[in-house]
Amino acid sequence: MIPGSFDYHRPATVQEAARLVASLGEDARVVAGGHSLIPMMKLRMAAPAHLIDLQGVEGLAGIAVSGGEVRIGAMTTQHMLIEDAALAQAAPLVREAALQIADPQVRYMGTIGGNLANGDPGNDMPGLMQCLDAAFTLVGPEGARQVRAREFYFGAYDTARAEDEILSEIAFSGHAGAGYAYEKQKRKIGDYATAAAAVLLRMEGGRCAAASVAMTNLADRPIFSQAAADALVGSPLDAAALDAAVAAMQGDIAPGADTRGPVEFKRHVAGVMLRRAVARAASRA
Amino acid sequence: MNEMIPPAGDRAAALKGLGSSRKRVEDVRFTQGKGAYVDDIKLKDMVFGDFVRSPYAHARVVSVNKEAALAVPGVIAVLTAEDLAPLGLHWMPTLAGDRQMVLADGKVLYQGQEVAFVVAENRYACADAIELVEVDYEALPVVTDPFKALEPDAPVLREDLAGKTEGAHGPRRHHNHIFLWEQGDRAATEAVIDGADVVAEERIHYHRTHPCPLETCGCVASMDKITGKLTLWGTFQAPHAVRTVASLISGIAEHNIRVISPDIGGGFGNKVGVYPGYVCSIVASIVTGRPVKWVEDRMDNLMTTAFARDYWMDGRIAATKDGRITGLWCHVTADHGGFDACADPTKFPAGFFNICTGSYDIPVAYVGVDGVYTNKAPGGVAYRCSFRVTEAAYFIERMVDILAIKLGMDPVELRLKNFIRKDQFPYHSALGWEYDSGDYHTAMEQALAAVDYKGLRAEQAERLEAFKRGESRSLMGVGVAFFTEIVGAGPVKNCDILGLGMFDSCEIRIHPTGSAIARLGTISQGQGHATTFAQILASEIGIPADDITVEEGDTDTAPYGLGTYGSRSTPVAGAATAMAGRKIRAKAQMIAAYLLEVHDDDVEFDVDRFQIKGAPERFKTMKEIAFAAYNQAIPGLEPGLEAVSYYDPPNMTYPFGAYICVMDVDVDTGVCDVRRVYALDDCGTRINPMIIEGQVHGGLTEALAIAMGQEIAYDEDGNVTTGTLMDFFIPTAVETPHYETDHTVTPSPHHPIGAKGVGESPNVGGVPMFSNAVMDAFKPFGLTHAHMPHDHWRVWRIANGLGLHG
């Protein structure tokens, strides 16, 4: 549990951080809350020669809600997501999910940016941001660009972020009026999901008018399931629609066996989580 | 005049003696982060040691190249078996009569095995160098299944034992066989089973798990080359035994070795054994002339030091049609890993597993245990357990539930029908134990009333109907366990570890001003000895517990004892404490009589003083007596007031308890919600009810973990798949249910204060309680048994197998 040696950098601005990332190249890693990278370094599964700590960067933490639009700085901690009243009103789904991440101690340190940028398929926020159709702002040597969450994840720890880019901000529209739910099964507090489902629904006249579904830890990346959402839209969320949504979702996920259980169990629990998330979201719609 | 003397009750309360929920004196430092653990020790010039460990479960070690590692700045030495061999220290004896490699001698037998020991100026250089030690391995076939290990063509694990057909515990019949230990009457048992009305048969696995104390194992070895004295600080549950064994292994005279156990952050059996880290640290200190610190990390701890359980128990239990148990048969295939390093009394290679007739009057029984080598870590320690009692209790409490299914009886009714009756104590069990005392029916009836057992069964039936109607996807399980423990090892006539008799000791010095220090041969790892042993003494000698310092763990000052594990501290050292206190009191009586100018027989002890019989207004307090003992010339008496007692218990003690829990099982997710836990413990005389309650809460939480998810699992290649706390289940406060505790009091007839020990009872009784609840939930659908741990996917698999997913 002793990391290898590394040089420590503490830039004060995003631009300085981006310059460091660009100049130090692939030997450098950016650290936000440190709750993914530092354990990996202690296990020597990651051994960056340079650690660029974003804790000193001004203006990267904070939540702005305006006209139903939400912007969250990458260094905003999970705890801040839970505590922010305006966010809870504009996008209560975020608070519900953040409360299911790790434990309070971790949430005081762990950041939304780290959770999203690391590309760990076990993390909760990536699926959640796909469900919300969020956009990520990446700052690099050429300036800033935006990537949709639904197009950001390629595989485990493999994302659209270039090595010389830093995730600086997350933006999405609030979901006021929509039913929402984040259902997560885990073995204990602090564990990754065995399976989790994020659902947003709008109901009109007893029928589902719009839906968004994303699944967590059921593939090498978060799974946004358009097919599952399509199966729900237009239906009264009856048994047939739920069955169809689960079947469609099953076509999109690809869970692997681990100590949480074999593939058939995970598929079953994925279905249960989705059904429960839809039911709870519908009750709130 | 009498009103000047506070009533006896008030004076007794002021002592905070037996029965007082006195706050733990240890907690002042622990709650402020002021505990001093091994890793807090910093010595001048201290260096650090750590291991290169094998990534393979079975491999030949072809070569070890140290060059690159030695070139790392700050690296002092890299030790291998070759370096230890000239000292005869590349192997060491285990507590079970086997021997174990200190560093890989030509091959490795399990993942994580110690291959080389790197010594460096700091931990960082040490960790860097470990990565640079080049070990050339040649992989060998791996066997992790003990049944496959006994097949004729199984890989030979212990080549060092080639041709040895006799082990420490009798004949070996196969190259991977360690021993067969048999108890009871096999022929008579089999005859009863063959002719029985009803026989229930099951294979029950108590899976491999790990004590996982919060603080891992570690030590600091410091050889002073000028005085020739070796001081060894370490996480030792038995410091004196470590001193003796260290002397025997190293050849250093015992008076030149000082072993100190500082504050210990939990042991649970993990810190009983002798580990390669200790030996390597000592050698490294001798070689370098500098203090050497070695502390495991969490993965090292889970993967290599002292697993627990891993018993495959094939059972048959026979009964009459009306539910009278007539015989019990059990064969265990015991997976010991690469070396037999169990921490049992030497004459008991399967510990006290033959307590497996449990709380029942079973006329005839047989137990056979085959120990087997596999490519897993050694250990087999008593994880909050008295030497395989947990396995035995799980076995019998599952078998009784399974028999109840077969008989169509309520499991409680079957238990009540077969309990050893109060008038049968002392009771001689078919497998050779003399149960000292018990009142099982009273305890069970009290438990049933407390939880409204009939009401629970009625609720369960209603919920089952709702499930069958499709209104619910949850099943209710009621788990019942009634356990009898055997603790307090033990009588020297049959209990020793490597020849060291399992007595224990207490030495007391009363100071002239009436306060005292007591030293014991045990060592607290969280049990609260400094609190409770002072309470025993307070009641025995009339000095307030607050005025008594209890000290343990330094072999230069504490009297010899065999340490703390197996709930032995209260039964053995607690008895020694009471007996030493009585010696103090006997002398105090003579002093009091002299001071009061009466005959010894004319004074009597009253709480905190001696008074003249019939004239309680004439007395001498213990405080006055203490001062006189030192400062007044008393004819015929030596000055001073001290005593020492070495206590060899005449028998074990037999705590028992009735545990009942209620669980809701979600058949779709496998999530089990424990909504009620009731635990009645009878540990005899209760010293500190608050500490007992804390012990019960802690043990129940460990039991919950073990039953519901905690395991050391291996894949086919012998890789540990549960090597971190992400996968090795330790419940947090969120997963821990609320506990209701209760008690009856049946004092031990042979213990000086009637106490029996309680530390491990909740682990012993809790595991079958939780497991039985899971089985009970699925019983209506035909389930008789499923193996632990009952984590989500395995519970889901039960439901799936029973067709409950439609």
Automatic annotation (TrEMBL), chain A:
Keywords assigned by UniProt, alphabetized: FAD, Flavoprotein, Oxidoreductase
Domain of life per record: Bacteria
Domain FAD-binding PCMH-type: 1-177
Keyword hit for Flavoprotein: yes
GO terms of molecular function: FAD binding; oxidoreductase activity
UniProt cross-references to PANTHER family, sorted A to Z: XANTHINE DEHYDROGENASE SUBUNIT C-RELATED (PTHR42659:SF2)
Annotated protein name in UniProt: Carbon monoxide dehydrogenase, medium subunit
Organism, as annotated: Rubrimonas cliftonensis
TrEMBL record, chain B:
Reactions listed under catalytic activity: CO + a quinone + H2O = a quinol + CO2
Keyword Chaperone found: no
Cofactor(s) the record lists: Mo-molybdopterin cytosine dinucleotide; Cu(+)
GO terms assigned for molecular function: anaerobic carbon-monoxide dehydrogenase activity; carbon-monoxide oxygenase activity; copper ion binding; iron ion binding; molybdenum ion binding
Pfam families noted in UniProt: Ald_Xan_dh_C (PF01315), MoCoBD_1 (PF02738), MoCoBD_2 (PF20256)
Subunit-structure text: Dimer of heterotrimers. Each heterotrimer consists of a large, a medium and a small subunit.
Enzyme Commission identifier(s): 1.2.5.3
Enzyme class: oxidoreductase
Function text: Catalyzes the oxidation of carbon monoxide to carbon dioxide.
Entry-linked InterPro entries: Ald_Oxase/Xan_DH_a/b, Ald_Oxase/Xan_DH_a/b_sf, Ald_Oxase/xanthine_DH-like, AldOxase/xan_DH_MoCoBD1, AldOxase/xan_DH_MoCoBD2, AldOxase/xan_DH_Mopterin-bd_sf, CO_Mo_DH_lsu
Keyword vocabulary terms for this entry: Copper, Metal-binding, Molybdenum, Oxidoreductase
Aldehyde oxidase/xanthine dehydrogenase a/b hammerhead domain boundaries: 32-141
Protein name: Carbon monoxide dehydrogenase large chain
